[in-house]
Amino acid sequence: MNDQKAQTETPAVGQPPVSPIRFRDLAQGATEVLVEHEGQVYRLRLTRNGKLILNK
Prior knowledge:
InterPro entries: Hemin_uptake_protein_HemP (IPR019600). By secondary structure, this protein is mainly β. The chain has a domain at about 30-55: Complement Module, domain 1 (Ribbon). It is built from one helix and three strands, in the order αβββ. The protein has a three-stranded antiparallel beta sheet. β1 (about 30-35) and β2 (about 40-45) form a beta hairpin.
């Protein structure tokens, strides 16, 4: 069986809807970006196969 979540979920009451952002717009031509979250830095990298990998 294939139990996949719907790609769009209804936001919680009082929450604005989430808008997708393209990786190429976020990275501005680079193949990776650094994302800071709660004092930790994460690396979001685009592979040669076009997949995204997130590392701490």
